[in-house]
Structures are given as C-alpha cells and as structure tokens.
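Why does this matter for the project? Reviewers at the last site visit asked to see concrete outputs rather than summary tables. In response, this paragraph embeds two records directly. Each consists of the residue sequence and, immediately after it, the corresponding structure tokens. Nothing has been edited or filtered.
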Amino acid sequence: MPDSFKSLGDVFRKEPAFKYLREVVKSSDVVNDFYKIFPDFEKIALPLKVDKKVLKLRVENPTWRSEMKFRESEIVERINKFYNEERIKQIRFSS
C-alpha cells in the first residue's frame, strides 16, 4: 500500500476541512452523554443542543432551574472534566 494513504480516523481528526464536522460531533456528544455525567438530572433537565459552546437545557420546574443556575459553574466544570477539554462555556436554561 502506498505511504500516501491515510486512515479515515486520521483524516477526520486532522484535516482542516473537517473542523466544523468535528465541532458538531463534539457538541452532540455532550447532549448524548449528559445523563452519563449527571444521572440524577434525568427527571429534572432535558439537554436540547450545544451551540458555540453554550449548552441549552430545558428545566420545567422553576425551583430546579434556579438551583441549576446557582450550580452552573460546577456543571460546566464537570462536563469539561468528563471530556478533558473545554466543550462548554455557559449554560442557558429554558422552560
């Protein structure tokens, strides 16, 4: 096999053309893994999406929304620690 061939994984991880796609995949990982990181939040919050490192969460109960807003920095830190990189900078809450 010629030396110029690259694995699909290498191409996906390193090629500049796939930068946007890598960001989309990382964002969807946060939504998909949210309950792995926070199993206790399963009945409290619904992760909607990540856009520009802002996680959008739906929290119906105003008391829980207030509590989660109070703990926002802790939640962001825990998510970023789970991935060993900064994936989230802020959380926006909706009802």
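We now turn to the second protein, recorded in exactly the same manner.
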Amino acid sequence: MQLEFLQVESSQVASSLRRTVPSSVCACLVVALLGCSDDTGGRDEETGVNTASSSNTTNNNDTTGPGDGDTGDGDTGDGDQGDGDPTEDTGPIPDPKWDVSTMPDSPDICLVPNHLPCDHLDFPSEEQRAWRALGLNCPGEFQAILDYNGHYDALEVLTEDLGTHNPPTYPILEGVKMVALSTGNAYDIVMPGTPGNTTLPGNDPGNLPAPMQPNAVAGDCVQEPNLVGTGDCSGTIGPQFNNTAGAFDYAEMRFRIDVPEAVNGFAYNVAFMSWEYPNFYGWAYNDIYIAWLESEEWTGNITFDDFGAPLSLNAGFLDFKDAPNDIDCPLPCSAPELDGTGVEGHAGTRWLETNAGVTAGETITVIFAIMDIQDNIVDSVVLLDNFHWTCIGGTPGTVVG
C-alpha cells in the first residue's frame, strides 16, 4: 500500500486530526504528542566515555536519567563545551515534528517523528560521534541509552563516501557521516591494500553477551508469541555459532530506547565486507554480523538473507566479489564497485536495509554486533547508517536498498 506522508508541527497535529479521525482518537493522540514535546522524552542523553582504557577495550553504559539534558559528563544538554557538549550551538530546540500516514493494520494514525541529522556537530569522543552518525540522540529527539563494547580501534566514524567508484557504491545515507564497525582495525576499510588481519586484544568473550543467545526458538514467534524471549526467533545464529570456539574480536553497539507512541517499526542500513574472501569463502564458519532485537514481538537476529543466514562471507547478499573463487566466480572475477576501499581484491555486499516491527510505547534493546567465529584472524567490517522509525511493522526482513 502506498503511504502518503505529511510533515506537520506538533502544534498543528490536533487541528489536523480533528478533521480526519474521531474525537476520541484525536484526544488520545494529542495527549501522546504533548507528552513527547519535551526535549528528552523523560530520558537524558549519553554521558562521556573514556575511549582508551588501560586494557584498550571499552565497555561504557549510559544510564542518564530525567533532568535538564545535562549530566556534566558528555551530554548535549546545555551546549557547554567544557563538559563534553557539541561544540556547535544549535540554539533553541524545537518541538518534534512528525510524518503522518495511515498505519498498516490499524484504524489509527502513524506519526513518525521527524529527524534532523546532527552528525555535523563535534562531539568529544569517537563513540559519541558514532551514535549521531547512526542517527540517534540528536537534540530535541527521542533519546536512547547507549553502550559501546569493543576495542577502540574497532569503531570508526567515516566522513566521506567510501571508495572511488562512480557512482559511489557506499554513499553516506543520512547526514554527513556513517559508522564502520570491525573485527579488526575499522580504519582499514578506507585503506586499499591493507591485509585486514589485525588481532585486537581483550575482547574475546566466547559466549554471546546477554540477552543474545544462539539457540533457536522451538517454533515460529509470529504464530506463537509465547516463544518470544526463549531464544533466537530467526533461527539464523545457531548454525554459524554452535560447535565452534565462540566469538573473538567482538565489537558491539547497543542501545535501549522507548518506541514512540504512534509508530510500529524501525529500519536501518548495513553493508558487510570481508578480507576472508576468497581464501575462506564457502567454509562453514566465518566472521558474522548479528543485529539483535529484544522486544515484545521478537527476540533474535533481524538482519539475515532469504536463505536464513546472518550477514557473513557466505550470505546471499555477497554481490561484489573482487577475486576468483572455485565455487561461483571463476576467472575473470572482479568488482570495480570495491575500488578505493580496503577490501579491493576481496568481497562485500551492497547497502542493505533491515526493517523490523515493534510495539508503540514499548522499550526495546537493539544490538549491532560483529565477531570472528572460531578464531581471531582475518577481519570483516560493517558499515552502519540511517536508523529511523517507520510505519511498516511486521516480521523482520532485509532487502537491498
């Protein structure tokens, strides 16, 4: 169904709705909007983070609470540069704006908060810059509790489109920056000719950090909602993870956020690239990327191909192969789309888009995690960008886009 969107100021929504929906529904939506009109939605922004601990590993959890938006340690509340605020004054923060459309399978209206990119602002740490590059915790918008767990070299904020191919294979999709998350040195992705074989000490957990778990649920979470919370609803992690030595060179970005009251989904973009190609192509165990959603409707991986495989060297989306292999790309086998990237001579996917349904008003946890499986040699990387709320809903799925 084609959705028609109309951007309106929060102060205009009530009068607009009175002409289109029953008064009882209108009243409920107005109350919801008024409750969301404050800058932080009752939750403060992230605190400052030490990006270079003595172990070269960071595990930083933001637990800010209600207040005026300033914790004095890395928040963006008052524009004071001395405590980690962005160095650019954004001025008065306006009320949130909304995209209005008919919500699928609902008699009500879908109100998607309008997003104004803020990754042009200068934040004091790479982690803070990374979250804004992803599209989260911009001033005046719904705020998430943020946590990065990984070696500081595994995270890089990219300020330009990746590669030299024309048109760009990996353009920035939202704002002026995007994120690279790697099992090795993330900066290698912009350096053609790098071997992509960095061992990062101190982050080899073996088991997946909670609440992630590799075991599949005993059925279909959509048909049997009671299975949610008992394992991986996608059933895509176990075949790659079980019977191995576990996760090495692990890095994750996780956040917890309240779903706006009148949306039923979110989406983000991801691309996977690996130096494991071609030498390890087709092997049973390779680096993998997991996007874990913890919600009322789904617990498990949400980014996987049509064959039920998580993003890895063996994923169905691996369209760009820049060297021959014995399985599906004999000589000549090249991918000029990877020119100017660190994975020249290796392989990668296109930009992909994952959509996942959520319940309005619930609190969700989302984890973007990449890891070596079985060992900590040879690296892979994902690009991440453009997290946003949607009116799509439904079972998680990933498409090229």
